[in-house]
Design goal:
By secondary structure, the protein is α/β, with parallel strands linked by helices. The chain is about 45% helix and about 15% strand. The mean pLDDT is about 95. Its EC number is 3.2.2.n1.
């Protein structure tokens, strides 16, 4: 595994535990020689991920759409920063550049990117693992909803959405695919 795409908030959230978890994950991945592909911003958890990985000597590739570049400030110190026309191009390029996908806590944009890339896996568009990085049960409501979808007969046998609460568990899970 050479690179992991990380989806996360352009805000830091209301509790410092989210920033701390982002720092721990980014530092661990950099130490393991695993590059990060992310949304390209220097704000919120996205900025923390980039700054921490870069400070630890890691590769960080940003992919920022022109519309967001005007609202969010692109990170100026990345290994590579790709400017793309829109979110569709961002998602496609991130999917191409990454070997796995991880969602940290974030908002609707984070959820959108996670669900879409996981859906692509379920449809056979790729076979890369997708996971949620659990911080104090942040993702539990999503897993409750997914269980409800399954129980009500609407799930298609999609690939498993993984989750882990430590960097070590996460990487082992992604490398094992479960």
């Amino acid at each position: 595994m050479q690179r992991i795409a990380i989806y996360c908030g352009a805000r830091s959230g209301n509790d410092p535990k989210y920033a701390k978890a982002a720092e721990q994950l980014a530092h661990y991945l950099a130490q393991q020689g695993i590059g990060i592909v992310y949304g390209g911003s220097n704000s919120g958890l996205m900025g923390i991920i980039a700054d921490t990985a870069l400070a630890a000597g890691g590769e960080v590739i940003g992919v920022i759409p022109d519309a967001l570049h005007k609202r969010e400030i692109a990170h100026s110190g990345l290994s590579t920063l790709h400017h793309v026309a829109g979110m569709h191009e961002r998602k496609a390029l991130m999917a191409e550049l990454a070997d796995a996908f991880v969602a940290l806590p974030g908002g609707i944009g984070t959820l959108d990117e996670l669900i879409e890339i996981w859906c692509w896996a379920g449809m056979g568009a790729h076979s890369k693992p997708c996971a949620c990085y659990e911080v104090d049960n942040y993702w539990q409501p999503l897993f409750d909803l997914l269980s409800h979808v399954q129980q009500e007969g609407f799930a298609h046998g999609e690939r498993q959405l993984l989750r882990a609460s430590t960097p070590e568990q996460l990487l082992a899970s992604l490398q094992g695919g479960h």
